[in-house]
Amino acid sequence: MRSPRRTRLFVLQVLLVSMLAVLGVRLWQVQVVRGAEFVAAANETRTRNVVIPAVRGQILDSSGRPLVRNRAALVVSIDPARFGKMKDGGHAVLERLADVLGEPVEELKKRIRPCGPKVSRPCWPGSPYHPIPIAQRVTKRQALQILERQEDFPGVTAEVQAVRDYPGRWHAAQVLGYLQPITQEELDRKAELKKDFSGMDLVGRDGLESVYDDYLRGKPGERRIGVDRMGKVTGLESQVPPQPGATLITSIDAKVQAVVEEALAEAMRKKPKADGAAGVVLDVRTGRVIALASRPSYDPTVWTGGISGAEYERLMSPKSGYPLVSRAIKGEYAPGSTFKVSSVAAMVKDGYPLKGKYNCPGSVMIGGRSFSNFRGIGMGVIDLHTALLKSCDTIFYQAAFEQWRRDGGIEGKPNPSEPMSKMARALGFGRRTGIDLPGESPGRIPDRAWKKELWRQTSKTSCARAKTGYPEVAKTDPPRASFLKRLAYEHCVDGYKFWPGEAANLSIGQGDVLVTPLQLAVAYAAIVGDGKVRSPRVGWAIVAPDGKVIKEITPPVIGEVPVPAHVRHYIRRALSQVPSDGTAAGAFQGFPFHKVNVGGKTGTAEVYGKEDTSWFASFAPAENPRFVVVVMVSQGGMGAETAAPAVRRIYEGIYGIGRKPALPGGRPPDRPPVIAPDGTVTP
């Protein structure tokens, strides 16, 4: 029998052998089975790949002045992947970072949380796997505190980056657009984007920044650096330099743009009910956009460094008038009498004599309804020249009614001629102009086919509303609810018919006619110019960082108006007298026509439940037009009272009447500025 002492010794030996066996197996696993994995992990902790963002290209005006440029800023970013591996999710690091930055830690947490349907700004709209810029206006002292104490700030970087700067502030804000981080969904959707994005790059979300993003963005570089276990840099192993983005030269003239912005702002100040305005300046001979403005506007720097919740709500708020929306290309409005240039051309093409005499009574009966001139004033027997000059409506009502009857009246006939709507489309109305900006609206030109298609699409809803009415509207506006219910009933019963009143309204740019200010400018450029309809362009040239021109952008000709030169000349001569002897004479009283003669047409469009839309479509010099200028003020009242004075101020700015000229001699540059390899710009 074994003694207890020998038994304990035996058990101890067995335990010792077992422990050695376990250690041996574990050592085999570490050295052999997972050896390569641990070696890779060890190497990974000694090196870091640092993305070097590419400097985004500038956007210049037609003389080389910056519309959008870059400025250096110290940017603090956090690495969400490293924060995710921390036990507290990086909370302790954020608290220390909040102390350095002097901001509440809760505010920093909001900036790095992912945006989502239930998460409003401030939040991070980009990929959750990419560095998140958390502060873009830090001081050198703050940056050094972070860089020199990396053990306290793991996953936090501070480095100099280029951020967007807008010298003109809110000028042309909707044209220029803005930048935002690319989302993970976008990267997942387009695999080819992954190789071009660093995760720190931003992508154009609107305007020129969006349309020319591929050229402006450039290509990021990469730096491979050695680091110690505390994350401090120990050396540079390799580096691939970034490729800066190209420069976009536009046809915008910054000085003219400023003049238009001031004119719109003043027009709205004088009309307190005005809720929006737009101004367009086109080069008649080339189709290039010299200025494009929309009010209300905003300062694009609000997007730099992440927009605040309050600013984002303001941009999206109806109380602010949706300043992100460009009313020049997206706003659709009845053009009123500015549309009559199309109607005159349509009448002449339809066989009405150009130099004939027409009766302009105070009112006419069409389809059992009275249609009147402004204030019901008759002008007797006049020609088309005077009809444009004095803005007679009844001549056009009668012509449209006669054409409507020839097309078969209410029942219609196969293949109707529809001269008014066809001429309007030939001038570019009812379709997008194709300008190099996103989100353009097509406008609307009504005709018989449009009416039937509209009825087919909406009759079911109209018939339902004819029974239920509009109780949600009736709570606040019973008369409007009653009006809408009556419209729904009429549309349900015979909404496919094209009524004579609709034809009459079309002839003076009322009713269902909708145009954008840019469309009107394009149409006037074709009428007073060479008869060609051009798709306008803002971009003029794209220039590589070494000064080489990558691409020159020319506005394409997309149509030719079916109006003979002598008819266009007749219309231009008639409009040339509007500012001196016609409906805009009051607005241009005292204007030095001997220096520059201006032609144009006023428009006052009625809008149900609102004040009138004020228009003035113009051109100068009237004898040989170089510019078309269109101004629209929503709820601005009469065209002669609001829009025409604004246009006058624009011409005074362009030609330097009572001030320094924005374009000396009234001549825009005929070629884009030259950019040397060292970055200097020669107009």
From TrEMBL:
Renumbered residue ranges of the record's region Disordered: 660-683
Main location: membrane
Domain Penicillin-binding protein transpeptidase: 279-652
Entry GO terms, CC: plasma membrane
InterPro entries referenced in this protein's UniProt entry, alphabetically: Beta-lactam/transpept, Beta-lactam/transpept-like, PBP_dimer, PBP_dimer_sf, PCN-bd_Tpept, Penicillin-binding_protein_2
Homology family: Belongs to the transpeptidase family.
GO MF, one annotated term: penicillin binding
All copies of domain Penicillin-binding protein dimerisation, residue ranges: 52-234
Membrane topology (UniProt): Single-pass membrane protein
Pfam families registered for this protein in UniProt: PBP_dimer (PF03717), Transpeptidase (PF00905)
Name of the molecule in the record: Penicillin-binding protein 2
GO biological process, any: regulation of cell shape
Highest taxon in the source lineage: Bacteria
Subcellular location: Cell membrane; Membrane
Keywords: Cell inner membrane, Cell membrane, Cell shape, Cell wall biogenesis/degradation, Hydrolase, Membrane, Peptidoglycan synthesis, Protease, Transmembrane, Transmembrane helix
Gene3D superfamilies, alphabetized: DD-peptidase/beta-lactamase superfamily, Penicillin-binding protein 2a (Domain 2)
